[in-house]
Records
---
Amino acid sequence: MFSIIGVLVVFAGVFGGFILAGGNLLTLIQPSEFLVLGGAAIGGMLIATPSYVLSALGKKVGKIFANGFTSQDFMDILVMQYELYNKVRKEGILSIEQDVSVPDGSSVFKKFPKFLSNHEAVDFYCDALRQLVNGIDAGAIDISIETDMETHEKEIKQVPQVLARIADAFPGLGIVAAVLGIIITMGKLDGPPAELGHHIGAALVGTMLGVLSAYGFVNPMAQKLETVNMEEEMYLSCLASGFRAFSQGLAPMVAIEVARKSLFHHFRPDLDALNAAAKKG
């Protein structure tokens, strides 16, 4: 929501100020400049970016403008972990074999649809639980979890890096668009001053668009994706912290308290509220 408001504020600030200064918005509509700038940026991105990263970018862009995680989302996975660990404590580790094999059919996981819809988190968590069910040593599972999280972190970092590179390129591409416009202008030096002014103005639009696109839109979007990635990593870390604590012999309630400590304070549920929700579940 705030990202959408931010885009509107940028538009209002830049173009509103231009109008207040006596500018005519129609002079900024230069299709040739848009084509040069946009075409060069997209082409450069295709040259530099592997197809799997482009695919990930397509999936992630929408998250820039979507609502992120809430405190309730983290409360849910803490309560979910408590229920699952309590089940293991009462019925034994094999009691969750079906839960981790078919998560969509799990009586525990079904209570938390947002967790089930997060396929990366489900795969990550169920893979760790599956290893515990199979009798693998907790220390070995811990190494596996750490490796998985490191790989995930490296993978998701690539997406905002793509946008950051485009942002870095935009001012230079804006200069390219402006130079092309000046070249055209130089061929019309024998024309009337009004015509020369029009061509010079059109050329400068390319520079303006390049700088505005870089610092007003694309670079902030890259930074927002970094925040989105950080929250996704925290979501996995919450699952991992609780699992590690439980696999090392801590009681379910103690394990989810350890997991709660892995959360930023903004997302961290109140301890009393968590205890009440866990016992209620």
Note: The radius of gyration is 26 Å.
---
Amino acid sequence: MKIYPVILSGGAGTRLWPLSRAVMPKQLLPLVTDKTMLQETALRVRGWPGVMAPLVVCGNEHRFLVAEQLRDVGITPHGIMLEPAGRNTAPAVAAAAQYLKAQDPDAIMLVLPADHVIEKNEAFRVAVERAFQLVQDGSLATFGIVPNAPETGYGYIKRGEPLPGCDDCYKLERFVEKPDRSTAEGFVADGGFYWNSGMFMFRADRFLAEIGQHAPQIASAVESAVKDAYVDLDFCRLDEAAFAASPSDSIDYAVMEHTRDGVVVSSDIGWSDVGSWSALADVQAKDANGNVQRGDVYLDNTSNTLVRAESRIVAVVGVSDLVVVETNDAVLVAHKDQVQRVKNIVDHLKLQARTEHLHHTRVYRPWGYYEGIDAGDRFQVKRITVKPGEKLSLQMHHHRAEHWIVVSGTARVTCGEKSILLAENESTYIPLGTTHRLENPGKLPLHLIEVQSGSYLGEDDIVRFEDIYSRA
């Protein structure tokens, strides 16, 4: 039997604002090491005996970033499945199970969130081997994390009777919601409770049988979504209408709380879901004063504080127990005891119809990225970078004209019926309403400055006529 890692990469990570945003969530960021959390998750299981390339489930907006990040670390995924809408983990895993079972009737799934930290990788491999023994016979396994503190931010799992022939393996008795402090202290003292890791292992056919019994509406909708799925470039797109019709539910609620075949594998693997800035600080190296710092940071008489600078120097003097995070368009300052309230900031930004919760000033596209430099009444300035061999869509705008100045590299510009090559320090003008396209025919990145002018400068003022990335 082969093991297929199924990496769930659909989360938003709102508690790690301002670094994590809707179009660049925490799993696509290098939070702990120089690799993103998605890359770390995929690399964690690469090369294990019997483990295949991962199947990644993600949202449509992240598809090109997911593909590029895996390519950057030399991983060719088994597939990248696109969710038309967020429906929690149960429908996502059911879709992956349908997809894998059609290819391998004996497929075993190792379900891994893309945004977790595991510091003891060898211990994790051993835990997976123990789970593998159980799931071959039809059990549905979850990995219970041995708690080292009375954590109130995690759900818990109560273990049942030990299972013969498998060290530290137990029947799954019940799930417990996030407790208050005194209840969590009792759980730790009891010794029979684990943190709920959100990681699972089971045969694809067994999971489908269980979700068909306990959540038939999810099973039916997902079956239709996979049946009517279609290929788009390197991606598998689930049928939009069928998947949207599925109820939204987690694996825990839809299946694991109801199955009679649930088991829990006790796991001491240095795990964290990095669900807040204080949790991120806990898994990073600290200086002699307990500080965590990254970027251009100056500290003086400061202790037990996380400081992250993304675009400029951040100086912190005479404080303790804080989180200070700077990006080029937002700054967060919070007490470590209050970091769970960061999601309230995101809610506020949504209510105010702002954009700082959606994206950074640097916005990635399959062809490269652009960055906002300046904006004012009827004008906007961007820095655009196009990767070698890539091109933007053939497009036009109803409300703006554009002026392009090449900073470095070579640009091929289509403007109406004309096609020209531009080199460094050369420029061109794209009149309002004119069909145009930008390409990089060279072997080096193309960098240019774009000056937009007009009555409306929103990104939705784009009419695409042709696009190599199959964007609408």
Note: The domain at 3-272 is CATH 3.90.550.10 (Spore Coat Polysaccharide Biosynthesis Protein SpsA; Chain A).
---
Amino acid sequence: MNISNKARQHAESCRFCWMCRHVCPVGNADGQERNTARARALMVAYAIRGTEKDEDIASNMYECTLCGACTNNCKTGWDPKIFIQEVKTQLILDQHAPDYIVDLLKRYFEKGTIFQSERVKLEKRKTDTLVIISPQAMHHDQETVEKAYRLLNDATIDENAFDTGYTLWFLTGKTAETVAQAKKCAEAMNQYKEVVVYHPAELSFILHEYHEWGIELKAKIIGFHEKLLSMLSEGKLKVRKNDNEYSVQDHYALARELDDVTSCRKIVEYVGKNKEMLLIGKEANMAGSLIMAEYMEQKMLDVAAMRWQNAINMGCKTLVTCSPDEHVLLRKTAPEGYRVVSLEELLLEHI
């Protein structure tokens, strides 16, 4: 298997302490030992030595959400995402990717998206602020997207900035096609003074991968949650406060990759009281991925259902999300008497 020395080192640095066994959202949902970072590292180490075939580990790499819970809890400081993404790239180049991934990529290059549902249509405005709304949201959370766009009345969309390259990166790693798409999106972004990024994972991708790949960004890049918080603090958005309790579902990209566990809670405090769940901030469990739901939907629903169990155990009746993935999947699995709202829904309910 042809991966970098850095990726090889991370794959071979596991000390088999099993801490990752307790924190992997997929492993916890399906109870399979293969869905731990420890197991993936072992499989890749065998493949490097030629004792296991690439196609035998292919599906296993695509069952990782890249949420970084294992990295956050690793006692030796290694990062499975590094070798997982490189292995995906090699699988694509060697034509050993699972058939369901090949089918998704065919759909992407034919239609410009991996999602089959219709995409929400938003009217373009004349403004210096661009909002990038992820394909996941545009295809799966259309009503909520319209609400977000209504709140961001000084921002516009741009067809050339619809696709940041994140979907391709998730499915194929750093390929030439991924970098080309990222550069195309950056060119569109650089036509604006400010860029608001709706999805936390795409925000992290833009700030980290674009920088690593040498892609220049001239515009000011901020997250949707940051934009809402600034609108509240500057009095551009006024809401009514109540005594209801809300619990923030921390997104892994904000908490672990961007080190922001406070912004969403500050927004909640403008309208009500913050009630914490267990496993919050950097220790939070994710509630699913819509990209992965395209090829393992039931497992993503199981992941979301497990997060609801955490909420039930703490008596957290209303979850607040900043990710369209988690908003959609938690909404589909919400137990009776519990609900989930996005940041924009939370604010619009109290204007």
Note: The chain has three domains: 5-97, 129-229, 239-348.
---
Amino acid sequence: MSRIFRAENHSLTIKMRTTAGRVLFSLVVLAGIVPVLYRAYSIFQSDRALHGEQTVGSYSRAIDYDPGNGALWWFRGRLRHYNIDSTDIPGAIRDYEQALSLNPRIGQAWVDLADCYERSENLPKAEESLQNALRVWTYSPLIRWQAGNFYLLRGNLEKMYECFKMACDYDIGKLGIAMRIAWKADPNHAEIDQKLIPDRLPARLLYLDFLVARDELDLALEAWERSLHDPIPEDYEYNVSAAFAFIDRLLAKSRVEDALRVWKEALQKADGSSADSRFVWEGAGIRPAEPSVNLVWNGSFEDQILSGGFDWRYSATADVEFATDLSDKIDGLRSLKLTFGGTNISFSHLSQIVPVLVPGNYLLEFYAKTENLTTDQRLYILIQGVPEVQAATLTTEPFPESSTWRKYSFPFAVKAGAKAIRIVLRRDPSEKFDNRLKGTLWLDEVSIRSQNEQNGMHERRSHGS
């Protein structure tokens, strides 16, 4: 009997212990769940408070439910900060400081706080906030840009350049306005390249165009030299055309030697195998490679026409079709074929600027073929000086209506002081009733060669006899 009683008592003890364990476990679980549920409830109520119009009041109610959310304090601060009707800078400062005490990684909040301090004329605190923003988001172009503007307004150009340069390094879209700001703020324009422009080829070329547009050609030459040392990024396509605007501006200022050097260097950078063999560079000087060298670039149209620099330039138009002809040519593998569609066109769409570094007598030669050219105004070749038009002049007779391949030769003179000419394929509008130009013209083996050496030989022979 006693054994039965002891067994029952033991069983009861076990049941009591099991029940107590379950209750304890339930209490532990409940203790863990309640904060989670409360947190979820707070977030729900906070989000609910922000439904509809977002105001200082709605964010205040959200903060009551979720006071540990730094973002809510920041957003309320921004409403107080940037509200046009009722700006509250002291309130914004308090909100920003609370937001950052909860989450110091909100980089933009540091920037907003800096702006509030600046408006409150507390410049040391404003700069301290900016430095905190930069520590949080070291490589943020936006924050670097805002810091740069802060230092610009304070007259601290060294810090401005430091911030702007990094901002532009990570966001090249900001470089245009940064260059304009620096140009106005810093009278020492010669150092802007080194202080502001990232050592990247696309950025350097943007600055080159900036200088060319302002006619700062000496500074542009320095920027160009630096660009030659900037490697070409893998995702960037470098073309000779990057130098075309610069070359044209140099030519307009009669700086032909500088333009030729830029042309040569652009060819080499775009394609290491390309070279302009017409001239020899000796230090700062330049001379023709040989007296009888053809001064026309790509005279047989064997290479792709670059349409700029010292290559042929042509303008696409619906009235004329430009094409290379592989089946009908004189020299090499192809000729240039122009087909006219039947309009009274004023045509000067094909030209080339040719360097002639030495004044004197020259000879233009080329091959041409025509087929069914119409109207009384047909195509002809025009030569003019660059930039002084009258420094060299030649107007050939119009091409015949139809002809087989034929060689043309025209002597002309270049006056002292001119170092370049423009050769142009021209057609003037017709005043006749039947004025629509149709037909086809082929050109090949175009050359311009100096006759000065030959003239000198003839003179020496004459004196000798």
Note: Residues 65 and 141 are 35 Å apart (CA to CA).
